[in-house]
Each structure stands twice: as structure tokens, then as C-alpha cells.
Design goal:
The chain is α/β, with parallel strands linked by helices. It has 2 domains: 49 residues; 162 residues, Alpha/beta knot (3-Layer(aba) Sandwich), CATH 3.40.1280.10. Helices cover 43% and strands 17% of the residues. It has a 7-stranded parallel beta sheet with strand order 3-2-1-6-4-7-5, with helices on both faces. The longest helix has 19 residues. The chain is globular. The relative contact order is 0.18.
Length: 213
């Protein structure tokens, strides 16, 4: 074994020991225990920092998985960019990346998710009145300039809107994501959050994964 390899292994051992302090492991177990069902999908985001700010909200509201669609926008790795924007929340989440909006949505629907498009449209339900208690919601958000693609809107199972009274009828991607996740979380807590937690074995696996991150 070379000195360089041994030095590297010593650093890894020290880092691992630090990661597994009782206090940190307790926090990991506490966070993993309340991870909930549901997916956030972000389509063709242009600025990675906007995506990472949305990721921060996903972590805060207990959503573990974020799917990205890069149909027209340049691809980036959400686990590696925008650390400051997400306050390092990006390292705690899991990601799937698609290069086709249709494939992404049909995959979700095939796995039993209800795909909910967030879109300014006359046929959209008001978030103030919408029932968000489907066991497997998938919240779909568009990019900063044009919102969701027509393909995404057409394929979605539902369309929701945040009613607004100002001159500007749109919000920043991360703000929109936060509002929807807050309302989802609020409704679940009123109905009984335990119904919407990920299966115990999945949450245990997440906790084990967290301990290595």
C-alpha cells in the first residue's frame, strides 16, 4: 500500500467517524423518519441556482426525490451544482434525469403517480380549493421564461394555479415550488401525516444512505 493511498484511507476513516457521531446519526434518523411520498419534477430549467433553491424547499418539506427533464435546456448535475443556493440540501436528495418530457410523465403515470401541472390556464384548479391528498402526487414545474411545455400540460393528469391579484401573474420557480409544497404538507398534516410517509423500509434505507453522504 502506498503512502498516498494510506493517507487517503485515513482521511476517509476520519471523515466517516465524524459523520457517524451520535448527534448526527440521531438527526439523520429524525429527518429520514418523516420523508414523504411524492415527487417534484422540474422541466427545462435554465439557471441551476433556481433549481437548487427549489431543491431546498423539497428537503424542508420532506420530499426526497426530484426528477429533472432536460428536453431543450442544457443538462447539469443537480447533486453537484448550486450548493450555495440550496444550502447544501442538494446532497440529501435523490434524482432522476430524463431527456424527454413524454417519457418522464409516462414513467410517473406508469408508477401510479398523479401528475399535477402548475400552469396559468383557464382550466386550472385553484390551489386554494384543490385536494392534494392523492397518495402519490408528482408536482410538475416549468422553466423560468415560458413555464411548462405544451406537451407537459397535455399529458398531465391535473392542472393547478396559484390565484394572484397583482399585475404580474407569475412567480419565481422556487417560490412557486415552496407554495405548492407548503400546501401539500399542510393538507397532509391535517389529514394525518403518517398516511403519506414513505414505507418504513424505504425510510430506513434513506437513513443509511444519509449516513454516507
Amino acid at each position: 500500500m502506498t503512502f498516498v493511498t494510506l493517507k487517503k484511507e485515513n482521511r476517509m476513516l476520519q471523515y466517516g467517524m465524524k459523520q457517524r457521531t451520535p448527534e448526527r446519526m440521531e438527526k439523520i434518523r429524525r429527518v429520514a423518519a418523516v420523508r414523504q411520498s411524492g415527487v417534484v419534477i422540474i422541466e427545462d430549467v435554465v439557471d441551476p441556482h433556481n433549481a437548487e433553491a427549489a431543491i431546498r424547499s423539497c428537503d424542508a418539506f420532506g420530499i426526497q426525490t426530484v426528477w429533472f427533464i432536460f428536453d431543450t435546456a442544457p443538462r447539469f448535475n443537480p447533486a453537484r451544482v448550486g450548493r450555495a443556493s440550496s444550502s447544501s440540501a442538494n446532497k440529501w436528495l435523490d434524482y432522476r434525469i430524463f431527456d424527454s418530457t413524454e417519457l418522464c410523465i409516462k414513467t410517473l403515470q406508469g408508477e401510479g403517480y398523479q401528475v399535477i401541472a402548475t400552469v396559468l390556464d383557464e382550466g386550472s384548479e385553484s390551489l386554494y380549493e384543490a385536494d392534494l391528498l392523492h397518495p402519490k402526487p408528482a408536482l410538475l414545474f416549468g422553466n423560468e421564461a415560458r413555464g411548462l411545455s405544451e406537451k407537459a400540460i397535455q399529458l398531465a393528469d391535473r392542472k393547478l394555479i396559484i390565484p394572484m391579484t397583482g399585475f404580474v401573474q407569475s412567480l419565481n420557480l422556487s417560490v412557486t415550488c415552496s407554495i405548492f409544497l407548503f400546501e401539500l404538507n399542510r393538507q397532509r398534516r391535517v389529514a394525518g401525516l403518517d398516511r403519506f410517509l414513505l414505507p418504513a423500509a424505504v425510510r430506513q434505507g434513506i437513513a443509511e444512505s444519509f449516513s454516507e453522504r
